[in-house]
Amino acid sequence: MPDRRLFARFAADEARIETQLLCFPYAGGGTQVFRGWQTRVPPGIGVTAIRLPGREQRFRERAIDSWPQALDTLVEAVAPETERGPYAFFGHSLGARLAYELTHRLEAAGHRPPRALIVSACRAPGVPARFPPMHSMDGPTLTARLREMKGVPEEVLANADLMALLEPLLRADLRLAETWPASPGRVRAPILALCGEHDDIDPYEAMADWGHHTTGGFAIRSFPAGHFLLRESEEAVVAAVVAAVLSPTGAGE
Question: What's the pTM?
């Protein structure tokens, strides 16, 4: 049976939903990243965030750090969702990798493809990383790198007890992100790539090649932000996502 704890649904009235927007957070992130999105989208779109083990209500569960386990878990839970009606995927960084691989798996199994696959702050498959892997760094080095990235609040980084609790999840998520075995071939879903103009981790040129990984439409948008454009330009990002969901041909161009 699919694990329903995987889903955090934010729509108040599911009967009004015409299209589901399934959102995948970045490494170390949880569903709360997307809680405010429901108030920014039209009533016909239902925002649902994906909650993998190791975070929030699933904090006591061991975080997943292998791709076969991650994808088996996601396919089992998400495949029935594809039969409920139109849906779209949004993923940021690690979340974009998960959404892309899940799209491959679902399409290969004959399921309805997403109306749009929206990838944010994630280099295209085959593009090499610009920085050394983080998941195997020692504690102080990892903390210093997280501080440079501005991905974890300073009050958390400065709290040794909180970091001790968070570090296993971060390392598991980072291991997934940094050992991504990108699937060959193309998906049918149109792709919209979102990038930050000041992102030195996954810049525009590292994301432009996403167009080679879909037989549907492709578009790329940049925002005046860094790697965490999801937070820095939230209103504009959500507007771009809504446009892609409502007009998937050409990924919302």
Answer: 0.92
